[in-house]
Write a structure and sequence with these properties.
The chain has two domains: 101 residues, Helix-hairpin-Helix base-excision DNA repair enzymes (C-terminal) (Endonuclease Iii, domain 2, Orthogonal Bundle), CATH 1.10.1670.10; 101 residues, Endonuclease III, domain 1. Helix 5 crosses helix 6 and helix 9 crosses helix 11. The longest helix is centred in the middle third of the chain and has 17 residues. It is built from 13 helices and no strands. By secondary structure, it is mostly helical. GO terms for molecular function: endonuclease activity. This is Endonuclease III.
Length: 219
């Protein structure tokens, strides 16, 4: 089966399972979404959602966040992994946004110029806050794309490019969320039963299926 044909069938399944996938990170505006996504690096969305209500109650705009200061930001996010670095980046980025006029600009180059913001974070903000078509790749999407044979890319950027080629542009914003939810619910990284998975059961590459079988035999 060609990649495009496989992607079309996968899309039908994902639309049936998650017709309107919600944004997993709690936020009140594009700026707080930007902060939440930046804080989610190497941390679960659930943990970020536990921490950000107090942070956003204290500062929900770049101006307020910059005035809060890096030390106070750190106090509010200390439970998160890499908290000291994240606190410095959030504070620095707030200052950069203030200097640029105080608003989060829906432009990839601008977003990626901010402290602590890489391609994935910028893509999430563009797609989820502004509706700009983007296909940011997280660990769930990277893993699924390889398992399903939609990409053999060794980097998130290469996987992103491959997925953008096989899925229609009009579906990107919901499709990347759908794959995240699917990965969490049906397609875990370890001890995954391929034959019981709604997608891996028929879409998995021989290499991925063989690796899963070897792992199950070891377990």
């Amino acid at each position: 089966m060609r990649r495009a044909e496989k992607a079309e069938r996968i899309g039908v399944i994902l639309d049936e399972l998650y017709p309107e996938p919600p944004i997993p990170l709690d936020h009140v505006n594009p700026y707080t979404l930007l902060v939440a996504v930046a804080l989610s690096a190497q941390t679960t969305d659930r943990k970020v959602n536990e921490v950000t209500p107090a942070l956003f109650a204290a500062a929900a705009t770049p101006e307020q966040m910059y005035e809060l200061g890096a030390d106070r930001i750190l106090e509010l996010i200390r439970q998160l992994g890499l908290a000291p670095t994240k606190a410095r980046n959030v504070w620095t980025a707030a200052g950069q946004i203030v200097d640029a006029g105080g608003a989060v600009i829906p432009d990839r180059a601008f977003l990626e110029s901010l402290a602590g913001v890489g391609r994935k974070t910028a893509g999430v903000v563009l797609s989820q806050a502004f509706g700009v078509p983007a296909f940011p790749v997280d660990t769930h999407i990277f893993r699924s794309a390889h398992r399903w044979g939609l990409s053999s890319g060794g980097t998130p950027d290469k996987v992103e490019a491959d997925l953008e080629r096989v899925f229609p542009r009009s579906t990107w914003n919901r499709r990347h969320l759908q794959i995240i939810y699917f990965g969490r619910e049906y397609c875990p990284a370890r001890r995954h039963l391929f034959e019981a998975c709604p997608i891996c059961s028929w879409a998995a590459t021989k290499k991925a299926a063989a690796a899963a079988q070897r792992e199950s035999q070891r377990g």
